[in-house]
Specification:
It is built from five helices and two strands. It is mainly α. The radius of gyration is 18 Å and the shape is elongated. GO terms for molecular function: DNA-binding transcription factor activity.
Length: about 110
């Protein structure tokens, strides 16, 4: 895998390692764009913590900030980095699948 794609996958995995960030991302995916205040009203996480999680998710490329009315920032999910991470996992799975299939064939003989 290309180094830039591998770096993207690494950022995605690091961002998604935290359950609170996964909750924020899941809320955005389920309900659409929202502000940090909107998310704090829906999740058992403080607005300040959500703002920090959104900053990390933005840095990983998983969300994008969009200006809204009255200077409020709305966050929207970006799926491209997740697809890169899925491709990274698919490559790893393929390597293991091939090896395990070869082992299974060897044992069955």
């Amino acid at each position: 895998m290309r180094p830039d794609l591998e770096a993207t996958a690494e950022r995605v995995f690091a961002a998604l390692a935290d359950p609170s960030r996964r909750s924020v991302l899941a809320a955005l995916a389920a309900d659409g764009p929202a502000t940090a205040t909107d998310l704090a009203a829906r999740l058992p996480i403080t607005r300040q913590a959500i703002a920090k999680h959104l900053a990390l998710l933005t840095e990983a490329g998983l969300v994008t900030a969009e200006p809204g009315e009255r200077r409020r920032i709305r966050y929207r999910v970006r799926t491209a980095p997740m697809r890169v991470a899925q491709q990274f996992l698919a490559v790893l799975a393929s390597d293991w699948d091939d090896r395990l299939d070869a082992l299974k064939d060897h044992i069955e003989r």
